[in-house]
C-alpha cells in the first residue's frame, strides 16, 4: 500500500477541484464532469486513506489488494476522462461567441479563466499520473 501516492492524489485532486470551481465553470457541460470526478475522488480517497490509517483493514475481512486495484482502476479511468475534458475546455480559449449582453463578439474564456483552466489541466494530469502509479503498485500487490 502506497500512502504517499494517496496523499498526493488527495492534495492534487483538491487543487483541481478548487481551480475549476474558481474559474466559475464557464463551460458546465465539459467542466461539470471534471468537478464531479475531482470532488468524488477527493472524498473517496480521504475515506480510503482513513480506513488504512485507522487499522480497520485488519478488522474487515476483505481482499484489500483487489479492492485497492479496483478502486484505483476506476478512479484512474474517470480522472483520465476528466483530464481530457478539462484540456478540451482550456483549448476553447480562442473560440469566440456572440454575446447578447454586450452586443459583440466575446471570447469564450477570458484571460483569467484561461489561466486558471491551464493550471487545472496541469494538476488534473498530475493527479491522473498519481492514480496511474497507484494502480500499477496495486496491480503488483494483487497479482503474485
TrEMBL record:
Keywords: Membrane, Transmembrane, Transmembrane helix. The chain crosses the membrane at residues 7-27, 33-57, 69-89, 116-139. It is a multi-pass membrane protein. Its main location: membrane. Coiled coil: none annotated. GO terms for biological process: myelination. GO terms for cellular component: membrane raft. It comes from the Eukaryota. It is found in: Membrane. Residues 1-143 form the MARVEL domain. One of its GO terms (molecular function) is structural constituent of myelin sheath. This is Mal, T cell differentiation protein 2. It comes from Ictidomys tridecemlineatus. The gene is MAL2.
Amino acid at each position: 500500500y502506497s500512502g504517499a501516492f494517496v496523499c498526493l492524489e488527495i492534495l492534487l485532486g483538491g487543487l483541481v477541484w478548487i481551480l475549476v470551481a474558481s474559474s466559475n465553470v464557464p463551460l458546465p457541460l465539459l467542466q461539470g464532469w471534471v468537478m464531479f470526478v475531482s470532488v468524488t475522488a477527493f472524498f473517496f480517497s480521504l475515506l480510503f486513506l482513513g480506513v488504512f490509517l485507522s487499522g480497520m483493514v485488519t478488522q474487515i475481512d476483505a481482499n484489500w489488494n483487489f479492492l485497492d486495484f479496483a478502486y484505483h482502476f476506476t478512479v484512474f479511468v474517470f480522472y483520465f476522462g476528466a483530464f481530457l475534458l478539462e484540456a478540451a475546455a482550456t483549448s476553447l480559449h480562442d473560440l469566440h461567441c456572440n454575446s447578447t449582453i454586450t452586443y459583440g463578439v466575446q471570447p469564450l474564456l477570458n484571460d483569467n479563466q484561461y489561466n486558471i483552466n491551464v493550471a487545472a489541466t496541469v494538476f488534473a494530469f498530475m493527479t491522473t499520473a498519481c492514480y496511474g502509479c497507484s494502480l500499477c503498485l496495486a496491480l503488483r500487490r494483487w497479482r503474485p
